[in-house]
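Hey team,

Filing this mostly as a record. A colleague (T.K.) asked me to run one chain through the structure pipeline before their review meeting, and I want the input and output archived in the tracker in case anyone asks later how it was produced. No errors, nothing strange. Just documentation.

Input sequence:
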Amino acid sequence: MLYLHATLVTVNPDRDVILDGAILVKGDKIADIGKSEALIAKHPDEEHVDLTGRIIIPGLITTHMHTAQTLLRGAADDLELVSWLCERVWVMQGNFTAEDGYAAARISIAEMLLTGTTCFLESMFADRYGFDGLCRAVEESGIRGCLGKIVMDIGTYAKDSAWVMHPGLVENREMSLLGALSMHEKWDKKADNRIRVWFGARTPGGVSDGLYKEMTAISKEKNIPITMHCAEVKADREFFAAQDHTPMSYCNSVGLLGPSTVLVHMVHLDDSDIAKLAETGTHVAHCPTSNAKLASGICRLPELLNSGVNVGLGTDGAPCNNTNDLLQEMKLAAIIHKAKSYDPTMINAEQVMEMATINGAKALGLQDSIGSLEVGKKADFVSIDMRKVHLQPYFSAVSAVVYCATGKDVEMVVVDGKVVVKEGKLQTMNEEEVWKEADVRAHQILKRAGLTEKVKGRWPTK
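Output structure:
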């Protein structure tokens, strides 16, 4: 299939933007790319799609999200972190069934595909959510998923015993670590190689040193990557200080640092931490909306990038963002650091585009196959329809995508050469069926958790 007459934001090594560009897809790969006139001449008999007025970007890659939490969208708004986590999020998640987990995965994936995300890193999928269902949802939908199965053996948060997990979420070494190994054996590289199974370790304080060391040793032996929340809130810094460590000196002491690890949030870092990340090739997932909404702080993104740390972008979960739309996350990532620094040049649109594409691919170890539009790479790309009042005029395709477009402007999504979204409609899932089941199950969970009277707006509903 030949996709013609679009503006191509390639994010290739030269960062070429091709006006009136074309992509030839053969099977699951990009077979040719260039000017439309040239590709039409080279492939005159190829079936084609005219994408005049569109911008094509590489498939977006979110390096941090919680698929289960989409059923909790709006259930914990405007709360401080302890109440948010201990009184709402953990309580609801502790009442999940495997069927709820599958429904949550489906609505999460549906939203990601519709808004241009073609690959995601699930952070901490609990045993009770049904990991098999998550994998089935990835397989059926056509998306790429790097799926972190939770690893833990302590049911509190940081050093505060008051931050106790719901009993329904507590797992031990056998259920979490050994369960992750079992799922890795069963599902890794399945679904036409679109699934990768990761370790999704709990935040330090939720995992014993011994289990961290066992997990990191297995990670190196079996080449299983690791993702973990780290240094998100001030309480995390207090935990590390109580261990006579900074965040990265602690992570280094248990073997967590390295090019197969993605650390999430990373708000409260010292200069020495940033230097250690750069030295070890450890990746960071930046989640500005979550950090802002939960008042966790603002990640030191400019310093990380200037130090050579690879940083991807993540939406986090729906209770601390309310959307899985990475295009919206891109805009905030480009803006929030300007406000903090009083410097409008601090982070630019091109850097954010890199974070959401090729940097994300590097973080997932998939940069040789996805993250940019290049011959030989997987045919993962997104068509954004720019023929709209709110998107015109524009003078830079990258600026227009980062600062103007949202997921609602996504017209077509291709993953592995297959069209999974066409004319803004899902092709692999029944959208109405997905959201209706999610709605029913979310309210059932709320009832089982005993939170029906608490989860509602502040104004009277009549």
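Quick notes for T.K.: The chain is about 40% helix and 25% strand. The mean pLDDT is 97.
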